[in-house]
Write a structure and sequence with these properties.
- Helix content is 73%, strand content 0%.
- Helix 6 runs antiparallel to helix 8, helix 11 packs antiparallel against helix 12 and helix 11 packs across helix 16 (320-336).
- The two termini are 24 Å apart.
- The chain is mainly α.
- It contains 17 helices and no strands.
Amino acid sequence: MSPLKKQVLHALDQPLLRGTPRVETRRFISLYQELESKNESLLRLSKLDFNLLQMLHKKEICELTGWWKEMDLISKLSYARDRVVECYFWALGVYHEPQYSSARIMLAKTIAIISVIDDTYGTYGTIEELKVFTDAIQKWDISEIDRLPDYMKICYRVVLDLYEAFDAELSPKGRSFAVHYAREAMKEIVTSYYVEAKWFVEGDHLPLFDEYMRQAEITAGAYFLTITAYLGMDSATIDAFSWLLAKPNILKTCNVVVRIIDDVATYEDEKKRGQVTTGIDCYMKEHGVSKQVAIQCLHEIVEVRWKDLNEGILDNSVSMEIRMRVFNWARVAEITYKRKQDGYTYPEKGLKPHVVALLLQSFEI
């Protein structure tokens, strides 16, 4: 197959704008070297640039996995998914450039911890335990730990320690204000996790689709994780946080895209667990349609929202550097849940080839 044909087929399957830059760069260099008309000097420079940055990424993933193994959370909380490498891949999708190294590690650590919290609310904790944990997070005080069951004490201490470490790192730079915003975002997403957990446990309340999406747009995580992405960005001033706090259209749109793509990909697994309050179920009941029709309608909503995202990225009320962190979450979701498969829970279905290509395979020079 010719390089041009490969490019065309890939563009039809994965539009360039919806792919993460690092993944698309890796793919393009591989295709470019097959061209007869390639510029050898440019190709060599591109490979060197890719390999040098990859060395930094390898150093970061070593630091991250060392931190993760030291905490040993998975052996203590066996119900949680062990996905620290995938968490780093997500952070890499938000920003891959070398100047964001510290920010990337902070973000990857937070994704790993919120994944454990998500599993606690979604698959393990009782509604009574979750109520106490939610209240403890709102109070954000280590003295609250005594109210929690033993397994939640582990999780609660890790959360508080993580944000304390962030504050210790950022305070000398005058960025304690960023940690405050991140902490408040954590409180918000945990509260919404609890609302969804109650829907699941009660079972007799199937909300309207709009009501479901109001909570789901929070638990989709784009706001929470973008706030976290700004932590280590010196360019993310109070104005940037205020812009995000006002929930601009690009953020609302990104949350819809992420939530629906996630819901469609994880639907079958959630039904096996007895989940009845999925976005698909809410849409089916409200509109009186079949599962297949509901999924098609949701797919159409996503397509329209991608157009809105493209428009939203042109909003110049903040810098492009700030806006792209929001936009990139939709890109990460697009890759993670490609072809309606849950690439986070089952990374071998989609994310593993990308992780290998970006973190293990270097170009031969």
